[in-house]
């Protein structure tokens, strides 16, 4: 349902009326840019009651600004139209960026209510801009004249980007179809919010309770103590509870020796969003698939995936389907071989709940590599400062200094000034590493302030992980996967911090979705680079460096279990595509039955490898952001694997290599076609062979 006020605003724009925004209380922290360094958010001053009025004033103010641009009696120019749009909406941007980031990292019931209310209204606000015919006519005129405007390359690309944004937002539709599109956009926004909130709330409510300590055999004493503490918080004193995390596979499955306990945990994980009750997402998934398919059809596309991919480096569903098919067959074949080996060790046919447990046993047997032997060398602060930061310093010359004077939204959040190789401050980096009940699952990077020469702003970027916080006084020891994730997310942060562009629309990580994961995946390589690993992998008690034989075992085990890992990734990508390649009249009536059918048709219905996400908690696909885009991780990894080869060919962790990667790609944001940026860096088109080799899938 659209909010009446927004309908009035949009109607006024359509008729050329000029609206005046009600002034925002000057005491509201969003009323003006933050006075803190780099416009760092004043987290200590931001309260729930500030969001709604700031949103109201921000939307009204931007629509005033847009009306002035659209109704300008002067002929359209790049400055009075495109640059003016880039400068519009600063108040709205301040509140929207802060709210969206905090609602992911530190939400509460009141913020959830605000999010539900604002989602359709913000959708309508966007429609009021991109479906404004007068504004569209100005953009269209400039686009037709672009060859004569004497624009530099970045400005011309920005103009072309705006033109495409308007077209893909429905600017060419009839008035009646624009109304239909607005309704679909609002419904999509509402459903996405409902889906994501259901996932988070059920994650907190779906902790698996065990009656006895014996059921948790194999878990560390610290983990068992944490489980007892969680159960106590749930009002089940004397019992033990394990919280559910993002993916189908749950971390304790790797160490729990009690098979029945493992199966209980896996079953609870897989049934999320599909067991009835207030968090059931099955109907939401079907509605989202239909709304997106109808929206794509209205815009002239055969399905939503075709619409989404046109704006990505992949371009077509055929290209994505081809890549996934190329990976699926060898991945599943390898997974079946792995399952046979695990079953031999177990003495029975392993199921989904058994895979991680026997994988760790087999890893230990094959490589004498036990995850528990690694963790004492992966203490969080060492990983961050002597690993992640150290690699960035060696490669790019940047340095870090922690500061305690800036406000944070949670006591565990850390803040660092980032200095460039010339000593000048480059950015502010926020590290939010621990899991919380009011924080969404997974790991991600976001920007509170984006770099822009036009707006005279410098980056404030944040990384968020979900590392379980140990009991008071205990060290935070990471798994290898958590170490890799820390390097990965910092790759995103570097992409934002190194941005050196003029226009906000093209800054930092504003690149195609199937390209944005590429720089972050490249940064993972430094987690196991010998010089880096030896610098941070030190025993948390003794300070002794990680033994060379343990490093050798990590390297030897690199391709281990890749059949499983690739199969679950490819299958999730195929599922996402199949949902979004449906026509409006082909939406199924049973979400999970459709999912099972997709896995079977893809040749990936192999029970020991559960879906990485079932549709009902597949947030990448249904909460927005990566809808029809989960393939991006594999697509980007093709570029990543090829780039890792380049670094190795050129000597590895050298400043000259980092400078070239930064100059040719990381600093460029979205100022040029993404694949052209890659080709400029690499000197040729990407090849898939390095990816196949990395995952042990090379066909001999």
Structural commentary:
- By secondary structure, the protein is mainly alpha-helical.
- Among the domains are: 4-172, Neurolysin, domain 3 (Orthogonal Bundle), CATH 1.10.1370; 206-270, no CATH class; 375-556, Neurolysin, domain 3 (Orthogonal Bundle).
- Helix content is 54%, strand content 6%.
- It has 27 helices and seven strands.
- It has helices at 4-14, 48-70, 78-87, 90-105, 109-130, 133-144, 153-168, 175-205, 221-233, 259-270, 282-298, 304-310, 317-346, 355-367, 371-374, 380-396, 480-497, 513-523, 530-536, 548-556, 562-580, 591-601, 619-622, 632-649, 655-664, 674-682, 689-694; strands at 208-210, 240-242, 399-403, 414-419, 425-434, 444-449, 460-467.
- The strands form two sheets. Strands 3-4-5-7-6 form a five-stranded mixed beta sheet, with helices on both faces. Strands 1-2 form a two-stranded antiparallel sheet.
- Strand 4 (414-419) and strand 5 form a beta hairpin.
- It is globular.
Q: Report helical residue fraction.
A: 40-55%
User: Looking at the structure, what is the overall shape?
Assistant: globular
CATH topology of the domain at 375-556: Neurolysin, domain 3
User: Helix tally?
Assistant: 27
Rg, Cα atoms, Å? 25 Å
The overall average pLDDT, rounded, is: 93
Q: What is the CATH class name of the domain at 375-556?
A: Mainly Alpha
Intertermini distance: 57 Å
Strand percentage: 5-15%
Structural class: mainly alpha
Please give the number of β-strands. Answer: 7
What is the makeup of the main sheet? 5 strands, mixed
Q: How would you write the strand order of the largest sheet?
A: 3-4-5-7-6
